[in-house]
Amino acid sequence: SVPASIASALSSGARRGLLLKGGAVIEAAAKVTRVAFDKTGTLTVGKPVVTDLIPAPGIDEAELLSTAAAVEAGSSHPLAQAILRRAAEAGVTIPASQGARAIVGKGVEAMVDGAPAWVSSPRHAADSAGIEAEGTRHAAELEAQGKTVVAVFRDRRPLGLVAMRDEPRADAAEAMRQLKALDVGATMLTGDNPRTAAAISGHLGLEFRAEMMPEDKLTAIRDMGGQGSVMMIGDGINDAPALKQAGIGVAMGSGTDVALETADAAILRDRVTDVPALIRLSRRTMGNIR
Ligand code: ADP
Ligand code: MG
């Protein structure tokens, strides 16, 4: 019978850490034609590591790192955590900061040693303050390697660049191959810049859309075909609106509570291959019913 097949699909999903909030998820997942993935913490591990410190002329590494850490001190953003870990490892003294403020999707600003300072994408620095980050060409090279580069400024003076690398999850490329075999499209949505996004998505084998603000992700999901056919996978607070907009919103288990609450399903073991697994399970189940 119908309920029995669905119930058995729900429990077989649960055994592999796929938590589905009801049988309607199975019906909807059987019809998915495209999956949209958040990048950080979903396709990647979400724990970036500082790989390069590039001080501007006349600035030393310690000053670059300590200023960046002071600005990021109050931020829970993965990039902030990477900078703070590196500063702790290097043992630099972090000056006090006041009035830290996130520039959503772009960076953070704060008062450091009585002067305004900020850490942001090099692009945001150029757009908002008209200051070209030192070594813009160098930044582009690092981004083409899949690294995320931020520029550090104090008193409108460039202090240098910090590059970070967030490794793709071990099974992400395999998950993309499995989606292709199911004839399901895949797109990565990210706030990161187009060069970094192209490097990572090229390596994994999916399409990408870069420099997306949270509301852009929402619009992108809507444009991808509306309710029913698009599945969105995300982990962060920023992803909650997009998870809600998608026909099916799926949270990565180690993500935030907000994402888990909003989603229709959760992948508890953080395996990207559980996405094609969910689609296969759903198609099989609905095929049995028909
Ligand atoms: P994602 O979609 O990958 O989660 P976000 O929207 O959080 O990206 O951030 C987009 C970009 O904004 C980052 O790649 C970075 O350039 C900049 N940014 C955001 N938050 C910070 C921060 N705390 N420190 C430095 N840069 C940041
Ligand atoms: Mg994110």
UniProtKB/TrEMBL annotation:
Protein location: Cell membrane; Membrane
Family designation: Belongs to the cation transport ATPase (P-type) (TC 3.A.3) family. Type IB subfamily.
Name of the protein described by the UniProt record: P-type Zn(2+) transporter
Organism for this UniProt entry: Paracoccus broussonetiae
Residues included from the entire protein: 420 to 709 of 763
